[in-house]
């Protein structure tokens, strides 16, 4: 799905060679400041390598239009944006940006269940807690139904139990719909339990790559 060759980004990322497989769950672990967020920004073409190349389905990202790429690849950042308006508006906004048909309330309620958000669609999104906002943003991404999900610490603001439930929902969704998930996580346990492959980063380099328990 992705192949990196001699990728350097400023003095932050140095990756000689890395392959990320389609329809698999890849977790990225590693120390704070190790370059995890920067790596997924590179995969989403939010930033471009200073040197080297990233191939997406064997085509250089330099030759792929960003708008075209975002139809297939959606990134959820560590501090996801919440916009003025209701929970409903905030769930629908991703579909609007990607020029997809809007969903009706029953679909939105289904998604809210998946992300364990027990709120009304009419609630003011800005009044939600940090963890609830994170779940709205995750619901927004799942509603967009991209082929590839790039999630940066999607459960960082959640308590342990909610985190476990949500990661299970997301990974079940990814598996049943044959999607590719690339997820930054601080949790070795999540990586071990859900990843097909685990990449560990430090100081901008991939220091370890191994298969997760679910495949081992
Ligand atoms: N645009 C930028 N310009 C300069 N330095 C940057 C930029 N973005 C990130 N950095 C630096 O690059 C390093 C890697 O940052 P990155 O956010 O990728 O780390 P991370 O592994 O995701 O960390 P964390 O787990 O704390 O979120 C950090 O030292 C950071 O300060």
TrEMBL record:
This protein's UniProt keywords: ATP-binding, Nucleotide-binding, Transport
Protein's UniProt keywords contain Phosphoprotein: no
Keyword Lipid metabolism: no
Domain ABC transporter residue range list: 2-216
GO terms of biological process kind: transmembrane transport
Any one Gene Ontology molecular-function term assigned to this protein's record: ATP binding
One GO cellular component term noted in the UniProt record for this chain: membrane
Protein name as catalogued: ABC transporter related protein
Organism lineage string: Bacteria, Fusobacteriati, Fusobacteriota, Fusobacteriia, Fusobacteriales
């Amino acid at each position: 799905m992705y192949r990196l060759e001699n990728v350097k980004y400023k003095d932050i990322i140095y990756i000689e060679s890395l392959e990320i497989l389609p329809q698999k769950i890849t977790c990225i672990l590693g120390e704070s400041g190790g370059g995890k967020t920067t790596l997924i920004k590179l995969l989403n073409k939010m930033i471009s390598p200073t040197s080297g190349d990233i191939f997406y389905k064997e085509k250089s990202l330099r030759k792929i239009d960003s708008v075209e790429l975002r139809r297939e690849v959606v990134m959820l950042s560590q501090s996801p944006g919440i916009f003025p308006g209701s929970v409903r508006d905030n769930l629908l906004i991703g579909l609007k940006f990607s020029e997809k048909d809007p969903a009706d309330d029953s679909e939105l309620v289904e998604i809210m269940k998946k992300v364990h958000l027990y709120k009304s669609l009419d609630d003011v999104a800005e009044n939600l807690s940090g963890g609830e906002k994170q779940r709205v943003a995750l619901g927004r991404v799942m509603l967009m139904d991209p082929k590839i999900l790039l999630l940066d610490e999607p459960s960082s603001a959640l308590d342990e139990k909610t985190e476990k439930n949500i990661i299970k929902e997301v990974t079940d969704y990814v598996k049943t719909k044959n999607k590719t998930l690339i997820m930054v996580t601080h949790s070795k346990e999540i990586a071990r339990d859900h990843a097909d492959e685990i990449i560990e980063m430090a100081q901008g380099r991939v220091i370890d790559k191994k298969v997760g328990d679910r495949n081992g």
